[in-house]
Amino acid sequence: MQQLSQFGFRKIKEILPPKAKNNLFKTPPIGSFPIPVGQTGTERNDHLRSGTFLNRYEHLSRYVFASNNEKATILDVGCGTGYGSAILAEKGHSFGFDISIEALTYARNTYPDSEFICGSAESMPFADSSMDAITGFEVIEHLIHPEAFLTECRRILKPHGRLYVSSPNPANLANLMQNRLFGTPIPQKNPGLLDHVKEFQYEEMLNILRKNGFQPKESIGQTIHFTSSMIGIGILVRKAFKLTRLEDVLDWIESRSGTKHPKIAGNGVYLAEKTDMPTSE
Length: 281
Prior knowledge:
The protein has a single domain (6-274), classed as 3-Layer(aba) Sandwich (Rossmann fold). It is built from eleven helices and seven strands. Strand 1, helix 4 and strand 2 form a beta-alpha-beta unit. The chain is α/β, with parallel strands linked by helices.
């Protein structure tokens, strides 16, 4: 189990609601299954219990953002090991939904305050207008038919229900710098993420939300990778911070810098409201 520095532990603890705070680093209950691992080795982590500071801070803060706005019935699509559903359950009734039986087995054993259901995000077994809010964090980029997912979300949400989605942004500062300096095309997805079909740039996400009957209300950026954008020098800067054991401080600065700059951040988090009619009609 990876231990954070006191700085990293404090910064994560600051943002978490009470029960989630108490779950930090706790060993899963006796009889639970081990944490399942996705293709990339990180997709199925329980971020209350393991992971790098930056990875955990990004994942947890998305759920805290949604939790701070919602107090009713929430569906967490792509819930994985269930840590996010547990955060949402502190403010309302949460359902976790995922395609992985292994992840849901772990979630049911570890986070009993939420209900967990298995299925595909492109065809979900929930009644029309049954949810006040839906979260789909780091889901849409995995889907072959992302519009089918948004159509389902619109069907399931109550009138003016809220949808929270996120996606890695391939037009982040590091890729933009490569493009400006060397003419490297902006990729459809960041390299190495083999299980991603297509990642969404800022305007692309706003457009696909509007096209499928949602009005974007708020956009938040997560992490501007300054060191990755500095081409060469950035490697030295990061090594210097690592040697002085201040890497978590650098990661926190980079993570906070993206908040008001979703167009160039490494990830975008979007809040949208269900409209009365799809904009394409």
